[in-house]
Structure formats: structure tokens, C-alpha cells
């Protein structure tokens, strides 16, 4: 154990600071910053302090306070950054959703309803789930027992949108289900469940996958039968792509699996295989599946797509180009909250495309800050994986953080036209119950793992021979 | 397992980095292009967010702004005073169709977004003032414009361009039929669609954007070339001009209009009665290169930016000898905008110096501070002072004693040239009636004007530059002279 890492990724350093007070101070910022943003929007749009200011501040403060209290009590050694960062993103997302609720252009759309109150409710449910995870999950290794149940659960969740009468087709992507007036994106929950399955499965099989291989051209080629699992997961991803026509969800699961496989086996060849297979799959499907193909075409030439949609050609959307204009018009510093025209994106402006509003109103500076916050969350997750003492914890933590990173990349990249657009949402920022709730659960699990990882090793029982015997700690 | 974990950390870092790089590309490198893209609705929103500055003539605005009303994300819309008369000057700024011509070229000043207003804008932002647009002050003359437009309106289609020869300032720029840009300035563009489909093309700015065969008015250019290249020196000495005259390399004699005394006529006489034979032969004797040189010095074969773009007038660069003869009397492929022919008249009136035509004299900041002032600039000298005065002498004979008597103004020296340009297949369509002229007082020439009338209602025989176009030119010159008093 080198002393330089003592403070951050200690494994059993006795008396490591719990950092709960750091977390509390950061949480105060995470509540105050969105509160100022909220006031800012109110002043910009109505010229007066928003009436819901106190309620909003109190609500967010209460949620943050409760979660902090639970962490302090039940996960005292947890990573101090994860909770404040997630709270900050959640708060900022709420502000921008509320800001878009005030937009006259969006209010004129059919099916318009104020989204902010719902999002506040979802956030509360999300934090309740977060609290529930910390209360009920005393040790993350318990999850290992549910490896194969998780597999079944994940498959069911992924297949739900395809069930007739339950699934919904939203602009071509079938990744939603509707239950009693609520739309749910099962993929968001599947993300967590499937990570549990992969972690449990790979922990058991890692040696077989890593060692039984032949060397060929500098790469370790796995045996045919060991290829089985990756091929199965690949096929499932392709099926998702074909039947749910969503590149993002497909990429997310396959990417997560490759990352976890690589970590479990330490074999670079898996990465090479993974990249090849995802490239083949994506290109193959994009060349014949019309919805995916259209998304790719729209990505290659957003202007043409915009022109087609303006001409009223069915199945084309102006969103991609509108998002690009929003980013461009924001420039370096942005127009200021409440003063942009990102509502020109219209449909899904507050969910899939919420980043464009941040881009226009907070500018390059704001987006960089937000991307760095996401980067920090991922970094804390990876650090948790490094610090974790058990392979299952490591795999689960890296799987969840890897999936989080891939999701941020796929969504933000899609909105910024770096890659074709997909139907997923920015974690915490975007409007959507499934996303907020699932991601709070994800943060809860990461906090649980990091608490276990940073918890000091139990002090050895007093031993009369203590003075003679040197205790060697791992 | 920690080594792959660290690599995954680096990989995730790359994902975030890729997003950051992409965002810098979008919001820094490409920001301006995206933000100023004409299809970006924000450009339109911004353009109409504050009342536009005005286009000013004779100290009075000819444009205005009013609130668009509810349900429109564009706050203000343009209004025009006497829009049909001024539309060739202003162009239009429409919420539904966009902006053209002067409204588009000076958009930055009119909206207040111009970089030259940056400091003021920043100051306004700090003091909480609303952004305001600046004004565009034009050189036009209301009385002259009115005379031109009223004259054209009574005669069907046509255009007028009038210039102050000593500076190049445009005094009148009229086109008929015209349109009122107020009718589609708002969010409803139906009126525009209708105008756009009208086969009389009311939205065509004929004074700048239509080229007509100039017919006999082009003989002024040919006469200038003859003097300038030394083919003839004395305007009263007989020229070597047989009648009939057969065009070189052909068996075809070039006809004159009627039985006019063109045999060996002097230059003055040839211009007075408009001899095709004399000027055709001059063009042929000089050859295409010398004719081209003089025509281009007058501004042919070049777009003018006043600052609104004017189409390039044409003097053909590739032609044989008979075609050169025809071109020299304003036929074959020779074509000119009314502005171009006004420039010809103005160069002659200004003793040979052609001033660059312009119509914006000043750009003003919202508080009327002058941001930019136009300084008159010499464009070229197509003929010497001495030759210019000879040509003036000839053109004054045309008015006093020739085809242009309709443009006579008592007590004022007027010089001019008529033209009747045939066009259409086998000259089947009604010819264009042309007239170019200038007026001169003791203190130089205050106005040169070119008028073209395309009249389908008048009978073929009635159409002659002197009958249809000269009275309009006279009214325009009179209006300018009156306003100078």
C-alpha cells in the first residue's frame, strides 16, 4: 500500500477519514447551485423571483438531506463525491425541465403537460430507491446469489417493449412500455440487472475464459466453446437493434459486456473481438433496417433531413439540425438560462435533447462543466472498482460505471451529431421517470460498494502476543 | 484485475474527451456558422426582435416597424411608406420570405448586429437598454423618384435610373409594375407567392436587374469611341458614310429608320437623326477591340454594386465584323440595364469622368452618429474632357433640334439621345422605347437619367424613345432641378 493513495483508494488503512463532512459541504453546493439557476430562469422569463422558489429549494434540500443522513448512517465510508454530483445533475435537470415547461412554443404542442412536477416526484422516488438500496443491501456480495435470476430478469425487461399491447413505438424506437398511464423504459432498469448477471457470471468463468486460449498473431484467441457467451450477448444486442430499433440500447449492453469481459479476463483480444463484432453488427443492421438506416442518414446529412422534414416528408425529423443550431447559437458562454430558443426542437426537447438546451443557454462552458461532472461520476465509479476487495464488487462497479459512461457518450454524442441519434436519455438531467429512478439505484449500488471498499478492516482482536507478532495486512 | 480497470478508466476518459472535443467543435469552431445560418430560426427571431432601423430618403424614413401581434415569435414587422414606389430601392424584409437587396445588405446596421455597433451594443447590455437598429441614409430624391414612378405607371412597364453625374449618387431608381413589400412583411407569405407567379414580374427590379437592348441610345457610346480613338475629330465635318451602306463581309445593307439624310452626314447630324449607317460603319471601322475598350470604360460587362447588385450590361466580346456594326447601334447581343445607360449619360455630362454609382450616403448608429460615410469615387474616364464637351454639344442638338425635343426644359441646357430597340424573334415584339439625357446649369450637371419603357399597349409605330420615354426623363430632370433651387 503506497502512501500516496492512502486518502483515496485505501484498502484497509485504519482510521481513513470517512469524508462525510466533505460530502455534506458539497451537497450544500449541489442544492444551492440549482436553486440559483431556478431563480435565474424565473428572472429571465417572468422578470420576477419564481413563486415555487422556496418549495423547490426546500424539496431539493430535503431530498439531499435525507440521502446524506442515510449515507452517513448506513454507508459511512462511501465515496463522498457520488451523491453530491448526482444531486447537482438532478437539480439542474429539474431547473431546465421547468424552464422548458414555461416555453410558449412547447405549450402549443398537442399533449403538452408540465413535466417538472412529475420529474420532482420521480426524483423523490429515485432517492427513495437509493435509500432503500442502502438500507436493504448491507453487502453488495449478496447480489452474487441472484446471478441467474438477474439474467432471466434482464431478458424479460429487454423483451417487454416487444410485447403487443404493452410496448410503445415512439418515433420508430420501441424501447418503451406503457403501464397504467406511465411510460417506462425497461432498458434503464435492465442496465443494472444485467450488470449484476455479468458480474456474477464472469466472476465464475473468468479463469476458463482467460486461460484456455491459443496465441495467434499476438492475440489470445479463445476456444470455440468459450466464445459462446460473447456470441450469445452479441446476438441479443443485434436482436435488440433489429426489433427495438435502438442503436443506443444495443451499444450499451454490448459495450458493457465487453468492458466487463476484458476486466475479468485481462485479455485485450476481447476488446478487439468486441469492436469488430459491434462494427459488423451496427453496419450490417444499419444497411437493411429502415429505421436505423434513416437515423444514420440523418446523422450523415442533418441538413438534408431538416429540409425533408420541412417539406413534410413523413418519417423525417428536424430535431438533429435544430439541436446543432441550438449548440451553435449558444456559443462559448450561452444565452443565459431562459433566454435561448432550444424549444424549437419541440418533441423531446426536455428528454432526449435536454443537452441542447444546456448547450444553448449555458454555452460551451456549461456543457464542458456538465461533461466533466459525468466524467467525475464515472471516475469515482472506476475508483470504487479499483478499491473494491472482491472480484464481484470490482466487476459490478466497473460494469455500472462503464455502462454509465457509454450511455453518456451515446446520448450526448447523438445530440451533438457525433454519432447517430438514439432514443436514450442523459442520466439525471433528462425528463423521464425510468431514467432518474434507475440511475439513483445505480448510484446507490456504487455507494454501497465503495463503502465496503473503503471501510477499515476490522481491528484485530487484542492478542497477548501482539507485541511479539507483527500484523501483516493486505 | 486492476490493470484492465485502469485501462477502462482511460477508455472512459477518452469517451468524455471525445464529447468535449466535439462540443468545442460545435460551440466554438462552428458556432458562428451555425448561429448565422439563414435557416436557423434564431436569425429571423433576432432580426425581428427589435424595431428595425430605417431607410431614410431626404431626411424622412421610408420604412417603419410595428408589433406583429400575438402568436408570432417574431416581435416586430416591417412597414413601408409608399412601398410600391420605393421597393426598387429598399428591397424587402419579410418575416416569412426573408430579406433582399438593401434590406438584406445593410441588415447588420438595420438590426443593430453589425460589428461596428458592437461597442454600443455591449454598453446597452450593461445599462439594460434594448438593442436598437441603425439607419441607412440614401442618396435618393423623393421628387425625382415620384416623377419617375408616376411617369412609368402611366405607361405600363419600364424603369428609370437617375444619377448625379458629379458624384455618382443615385437620385431615382424606379421600376414598373411594382409591388408593395408591406403586403408580405408579416408572417403570412401568400401575397409573395402570388406576386412571384405574376407573369408581369412585379418583383423584378428592372432598373438594376433587367438588361434591355439599348438601341440607338448606344450611339452615344459609339460616338464617344469615334472621338476618343481619333476616327473623327470635327463633329461638324462630313463623315465618310455611303448610303446605302453594306455591312462588311455581307451583302446586307444596314437600313435606317425612314428616309433620313445620312449620306456622309456629320457626327452631329448623324446623332440628331439617328443614322444607323453612320454609327454602324464607325463601329465597323474602329473594330470590336476599340469599341469594347470604350464600352467597358463606361461600365459594360461588369456587375455594379450600389451596394445592391446590378446585373452586368453586355457588350459582346466575341463577334465578327457585321456583328460589330450591329452591336455599335445597340443591337445584336448588346444589352444594358437602365442604370448602365444613366452612367453613360452621366459620364458625358460630367466632362468625361464616370463616377461610381452609389445609393447609400451614410450609415447611422441608433443615436444618429455617422458610422460610415460614402466618399464619391471616380470609376474611370471613358473620354477626355474635350471630347465629352463635343459629345454634349451633339446631344444638345438632339434635344433642341432632333428626336428628343420632348425633353426640352426652358432655360436649362439639356442633352440626350432617344432609342427604339427592336427585340423578339424577327423583331416581332413591341420595341423598347429608350431615352437617356442630362440637364446642365451654370454650376455643372446635377442629373443624368435613363428611361426605358416596354409598352405593349401602344401601337408599334407610336413607340419611339422621344415620344414615350423622353417626357418621363424631362419630369425627373425637372424634379431634380426644382429641388436644387
Word description of this protein:
Chain A: Keywords: Cell shape, Membrane, Transmembrane, Transmembrane helix. Chain A: It is a multi-pass membrane protein. Chain A: Residues 454-474 are annotated as: Disordered. Chain A: It comes from Streptomyces longisporoflavus. The complex is a heterodimer of chains A (474) and B (485). Chain A has one domain (9-454). Chain A has 17 helices and five strands. Chain A has helices at 6-9, 20-46, 53-74, 82-101, 104-107, 116-136, 147-159, 186-211, 228-244, 247-265, 268-288, 290-300, 302-310, 319-330, 354-387, 391-415, 433-454, and strands spanning 167-170, 173-179, 182-184, 213-216, 219-222. In chain A, helix 8 (186-211) crosses helix 17 and helix 13 (302-310) packs across helix 14. Chain B is of the alpha+beta class. Chain B has a domain at 208-360 and 377-484: 3-Layer(aba) Sandwich (Beta-lactamase). Chain B is built from 18 helices and 18 strands. Chain B has helices at residues 2-29, 31-36, 41-47, 83-90, 101-105, 107-111, 118-127, 142-153, 190-197, 206-209, 219-228, 267-273, 276-286, 288-297, 321-328, 338-349, 385-401, 465-484, and strands at 55-57, 60-61, 63-67, 76-80, 93-94, 98-99, 135-138, 157-163, 170-176, 304-305, 309-310, 354-355, 360-364, 370-373, 378-380, 413-421, 432-441, 444-454. The chains are: A mainly alpha (474), B alpha+beta (485). Chains A and B meet through helix 10, helix 14, helix 15 and helix 16 of A and helix 1, helix 2 and helix 3 of B.
- The number of helical runs of chain B is 18
CATH superfamily of the domain at 208-360 and 377-484 in chain B: DD-peptidase/beta-lactamase superfamily
| Strand elements of chain A, count | 5
Mean pLDDT of chain B: 89
The first-level CATH class of the domain at 208-360 and 377-484 in chain B is given as Alpha Beta
Sheet with most strands of chain A = 3 strands, antiparallel
Q: Which parts of chain B are unreliable, with pLDDT below 50 for 5 consecutive residues or more?
A: none
Tell me the series of helices and strands of chain A, N- to C-terminal.
HHHHHHHEEEHEEHHHHHHHHH
* Radius of gyration of chain A using CA atoms only: 23 Å
Protein structure class of chain B: alpha+beta
- Give the overall shape of chain B: elongated
The portion of residues assigned to helices of chain B is: 25-40%
Order of neighbouring strands in the sheet with most strands of chain B: 2-1-7-13-14
SSE class of chain A: mainly alpha
Strand content of chain B: 15-25%
CATH-derived architecture of the domain at 208-360 and 377-484 in chain B = 3-Layer(aba) Sandwich
Radius of gyration of chain B: 27 Å
InterPro entries (chain A): FtsW/RodA
Region (Disordered) (chain A): 454-474
Protein name (chain A): FtsW/RodA/SpoVE family cell cycle protein
Subcellular location (chain A): Membrane
